[in-house]
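Lab meeting prep.
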Amino acid sequence: MLNTQNVTLAISAGRPDQFLNEPIPQIALSGRSNVGKSSLINSLLGRKSLARVSGTPGKTVTVNYYRVDKKLFLVDLPGYGYAKRTREEQAAFSALTDGYLVRNPNIDLLRLILQMIDIRVGPTSDDNAMLGWLNSSGIPYAVVATKCDKCSKSELTANIDALTSHPNIADGTPIIPFSATKGIGQREVWSIISDAAGIR
């Protein structure tokens, strides 16, 4: 079992040469800016502010490695789809994301990508581009449908059905409704992380 109280921010990597290669599994979080990646990390680890929830989405361009009990890294990738980024910020984001996902010599340490999608919005064009890459990469992924507490019961059912049948989400992909504020989906997310990382 993981001791989720034993957690540190190991590094906020601003360059690909800073990516960690410690021989423990990595689980990456991908999604558009303001989809709730920091909130998910704080919720999973029972912290209020371990991962900083920015009031200005899209401004932080780093790959953040959270070391959990020296057995696992949660890797928070920069959020995409933020229209107000400068050209320089866009270039830095692209270099980091490409460096981690495509040119990473330690990609074998990446066991799973949690692709986060706002359940109220569904996949955006940027999400669809990412899903296309995931489907061709061979890297296992699961969809975490965030902010589910903001949907009515009928909306939630309809939106989950829409994700399940979405042409860019591979058949059989786990889809987990999640709410950081209500704690919905925590157990399911931890279960899929533990399975992917081989932690019992």
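Slide two material, second protein:
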Amino acid sequence: MRRLTSAVSVVGTLALAGCPPRLPPPDVPAVLTSPTEQSHADLVRVVSRAMNGASVTLADAALTADDTLIVQRAPHRDAQGVDLAGRETGRPEHFRLVKSGSRCVLVHERTGRRWTLTSATCSPR
């Protein structure tokens, strides 16, 4: 019985060694298709989360014509609208929309973090 178990183990190991690892689907640049209020709210929520909870305003057509989204931080202003900080030295944040399998995924370029847009539909660019 011991010999049979060893033979089965060897055969199983050899069979697994011959199978290539299952790779995730490649990312393909994508644009949003048929955007809705819900998909726009999802995009705003994800971008805000990526920017540590900062309030963000995005155009309704964001990511519908191009796979890149660039978000500039709003300058701090006083009650009269005068810029408090002077020259803005912060860098804008860059995001990229990709289709990964059947999912629409927003990638934060600086960090590499990824978020699935659950209510969005997208197509390869």
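Talking points for slide two:
The first helix runs from residue 2 to 18.
Strands lie at 27-33, 68-71, 93-100, 103-108, 114-116, 121-124.
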